[in-house]
Each structure stands twice: as structure tokens, then as C-alpha cells.
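ligand=calcium ion
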Amino acid sequence: MEPAAVILAAGKGTRMKSNLPKVIHPLCGRPMLGHVLSSVAEAGVTKTVVVVGFGSDQVADFVGNEAKVVIQNEQLGTAHALLQAEQELREYPGNLLVVCGDTPLLRGETLAKLAQEHSESGAAATLLTTEMANPTGYGRVLRTETGDVSRIVEQKDASPEELTVKEINTGVYCFKVPGLFSALKEISPANAQGEFYLTDIVQIFIKKGLKVKAVTLEDAQEVQGINDRIQLAQAEAVMRQRILEGLMVQGVTIMDPGNTYVELGVKVGADTVILPFTFLRGDTEIGNHCVIGPGCKITNCMIGNNNEIQYSVLLDSQIGNDAVIGPYAYVRPGTVLADKVKVGDFVEIKKSHIGRGSKIPHLSYVGDSTIGESVNVGAGTITCNYDGKNKYQTVIEDGAFIGSNTNLVAPVTVGRDAVIAAGSTITKDVPTEALGVARGRQTNHTDWAKKQRKKS
Ligand code: UD1
Ligand code: CA
């Protein structure tokens, strides 16, 4: 049977110096706690209890119905925290994994392995331990001469000799449920921090003649706890590298992984190249054979194949295939670009549908518009979509040609294959195949300049 899990996440995270509960601080776009929840789910856990305290509303909001939330009103220590889950788990027929909410790099497969070894050995508790070159701050795992775990001693309670031990307690455990909660109640806060230490359960079990085992983790980085923003940045770098390596393994070229930022869950197709200073965020999918970057920020976009996008910001939009975007384009929410569209330099598009093969190459604002196929929008074209109160639609039908520096005062429709003379301010619909001209006629005053000069 699959294990249940408890995630301890009630601590304030004082060293973060933040109003935000520690476990809600994001790492590669997702709160730390979100990473832990995914790892737990990857390990096959279907019943998870999150113990929250500081900022419990915010944490509970984030958890939603992904897990059961229980509240620890006072943070009296990790044993006390785990006891808050008693009601929820006392009758649970499988084993119980315990993890901290502040170790987002922990992998699901590590938890699965811990749970499996725990089941196989029949121990009452199995600890996940690792060796750290610098174990400062962690609880040290003490062993007997025969190598069995005998005790965990916290940094603040350890003797100088114990402090030299490099094997640390990762704060990740697997327990048998029967006997666990009653043993937790035997723990006393008689220690340097006056807290109920979950780690004291080791000695309690051993005294009862129960087995305590340890599984040793090779990659200590996985259990790096996050206590301050320096560790947050370090973990972010590790997570980022993992995400990028995942993409590279699938055939994505990333020219400079140190300067490329891809959030967890973003999908990128093979033979796409991501150039430096690019941020791919949220629910974004990019197809094959694209060149993205340098300098793009793309959030929640569905992007097809063979697209070229540089120095641009794209939000909540959909891009077909063979598009060329940028440099310096701003594609705002609700935009849909069909295939072979060009959105060039200094062009802003908002909530608009641009048809196949249409081009908006320079210096334009297109908002609340529907543009057909093979339309050419000249430089400096502006859709005047807002009268200060309401937004209005602009429609440009297939094949139309909009001369440079045109204002299209919405609501307005430019018919199929119509032409707008450059510099027009179009306030009335332009019929199919018509030429729309809306500008003052030019008059040239002969020798005007010469006369002016004579006068002065
Ligand atoms: C704990 C372990 C230590 C281990 C380290 C690994 C104990 C006594 N010590 O120490 O052996 O090396 O983790 O990172 O367990 N929490 C609550 N309620 C509380 C106290 C803590 O929910 O009352 C949560 C915190 O939010 C955090 C986790 O438990 O997610 C660990 O607590 P923390 O105070 O960070 O423990 P450490 O001192 O790091
Ligand atoms: Ca910690």
C-alpha cells in the first residue's frame, strides 16, 4: 500500500525576513511547498496532510484541495507539529512519510526509495540521512560501533565531538503508523531550544526495542533546507539547472543555461533554440524549430513551430507557426497570431486576432482588432480603440493595405482588399476594394520661404 505523507510547514521562517510564509516563496515560478507537494505525489502518495501555522490562511489557500491542511497554533517543535496530524492519520493503514515544507529540491524518487526500504526492513522508523562537508545547523546522526543509528543530536545540543559528525538528519522520515503518535507524546522539551524535537523519537523507539534504520542519500543538495534568501537563491539555481537539463535532454538547445530562466512545467519542442536572457513562465508551450531570444519574457503562451521571437514580451497569447516577432514587440493577453504572421519592432498587440500571412512590421498599436489574412499594416498605424470609457473593435478584412501612420478610430471596418492612404484618420467604414483617404489635402505655396526670408 502506498504511504501517506505529512509536510511540516508551520514555521515562520524568521530568517527570510518576510511577511510571506516561507513555504510560499517561489522557486522557478512555484511556491516551495508546491515542489514538495509534487515530489510527494510523484512518490505515489495519495493522502497528504500539511501542517500550517504562520500565515496559515495563505498556505491553506495555496494548498487548496491538493492536500488536507491542519493547523499548529503554536510552533512548539517538529514533534508537536507532527502530532497535529494525528486525527487525520492515526487509522491510516500504510506507512507515513514526513518531510519539511522548506526542502523543495527533494525528489519524488528519493521519497519512493525511502518508503520502499522502510517497508522492506520492517523498521519502526527510517531516516533519510546524508553527509555534508559543512553540517552546521543540521541535526547530527549518531551511530553505534556496529553502525546502527542510536540518536540524533541537534546542533545546539551537541558536544564539540558530536559536532564533528558529518552525517546529518535531512528531516525526512518514514514511519510505521501504529505506535507513532503515542511515542510522539513521550517526547519532552528538555533541550537547548525548549522544543518538542521529532528527532527524539529515535531514542524512544530504540528504548522500546524497535528498529530504526537509515537510508543515505548521495546528493546532499536535494535536502538543502531553505532558511534565508541566500539559500533560496542557491536552490533556485539548482532547480533552474535541473529544468534546463530536462529540456536539453529532450533536444532543446540552450546556449547559456546560466542566463536562461524556465519555470517548471514549461514545455519546449526539440530543435528549438533558447538564447540568453529569456524567461519562459507559467503555462507556456513552445513547439519545434523555434528560435526564442535573446531577451524574451513569455508567460502563459502556446507557441507553434518555426517561430522566431527576439527581445519581446508575450503574455497569455497563442502563436501559430512560422511567425517572426520582435525585436521589441509587446504581445498582450488575448492575442492570437495565425501562421506566417510578422509582428515587428515596437509593435504592441492586445486582444486581437491576426490572420495568416499578415504583417505589422513597425511601430504600431493594434488592440481589440480582427485582422484577416495577408493584410499589410503600415508603420505607425494605431487602432484608436478607447474613447475614455469603452473599448471598440477594429476589423480589417483579408488583403487590405493600411498606409503608414493611419489612425483607425474604432468601431470601424476596413473591407477586403481596401487601401488606406498614408496619414489617414479613418472614422468611417471603408468598403471592399475602396481607397480610403482621410487627411488634409496638401497645398504648396510657391516661393513662400523665399518671401519670408526677404521680409526679415
Ligand atoms: C530539523 C531537524 C534537524 C534536521 C533539519 C533538516 C528537529 C528537531 N530537527 O531542524 O535534525 O537536520 O530539520 O532541515 O526536527 N516546523 C513546524 N512546526 C514547528 C517547528 C517546525 O511545522 O513547531 C516545520 C518548519 O516549518 C520546517 C520544519 O518543520 O518546515 C523543520 O523545522 P525547522 O525549525 O526548520 O527545524 P531545523 O532546526 O531546521
Ligand atoms: Ca530547517
